[in-house]
């Protein structure tokens, strides 16, 4: 005894099986139902239409992906050290336990190593809304203010791990 497949136009209509029993077809959940261009199926997948009273796809507008553009604020730009010059201090920073996050693979120095140049690094996204150049400027602005008040070797190393060499001689 094989059962006949329901057709969508037979929704809530009785269907007679070959063995004589009657059953009611249900609407199958099709994964290929489409929405308009620039729309996608949302959550919940379907809803009851207020106009027709029937179950329809819940189509929602797709969010446009934002491209990151550097801020146009005129903030002080800090000179960049090359990766090769900054990487000379990684062992010393590791020995003193300075800038663990900045030294990591996904931190500033890890990304700088992969990207290669300061010009590319300035525009490379650190998050959805922030570039590495902006993140670096914010870090240097915070830490350099403290460094000017009380220059310590650990803070000097932290600034080096963000490819910035503070002016003046190295503190001991």
Care to describe what's here?
The protein is α+β, with helices and mostly antiparallel strands and about 170 residues long. Among the domains are: about 35-65, no CATH class; about 85-160, no CATH class. Helices cover about 35% and strands about 15% of the residues. The protein has helices at about 85, 90-95, 100-105, 110-115, 120-125, 130-150, 155-160, and strands at about 15, 20-25, 40-50, 55-60. The chain has a two-stranded antiparallel sheet. Helix 6 (about 130-150) packs antiparallel against helix 7.
Sequence-ordered SSE layout with sheet pairings:
Blueprint: E1 14-16, E2 22-24, E3 39-48, E4 55-61, H1 83-87, H2 90-96, H3 100-103, H4 108-115, H5 118-123, H6 132-149, H7 153-160
Antiparallel strand pairs: 1-2, 3-4
Helix pairs in contact: 6-7
């Amino acid at each position: 005894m094989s059962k006949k497949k329901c057709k969508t136009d037979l929704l809530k209509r009785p269907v007679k099986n070959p063995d004589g029993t009657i059953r009611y077809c249900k609407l199958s959940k099709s994964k290929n139902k489409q929405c308009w261009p620039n729309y996608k199926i949302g959550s919940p997948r379907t809803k009851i239409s207020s106009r027709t009273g029937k179950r329809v796809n819940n189509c929602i507008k797709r969010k446009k992906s934002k491209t990151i553009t550097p801020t146009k604020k005129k903030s002080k730009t800090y000179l960049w050290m090359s990766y090769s010059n900054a990487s000379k201090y990684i062992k010393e920073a590791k020995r003193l336990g300075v800038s663990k996050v900045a030294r990591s693979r996904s931190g500033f120095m890890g990304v700088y190593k992969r990207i290669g140049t300061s010009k590319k690094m300035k525009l490379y996204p650190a998050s959805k809304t922030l570039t590495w150049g902006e993140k670096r400027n914010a870090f240097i602005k915070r830490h350099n203010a403290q460094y000017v008040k009380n220059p310590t070797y650990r803070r000097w190393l932290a600034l080096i791990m963000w490819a910035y060499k503070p002016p003046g001689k190295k503190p001991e």
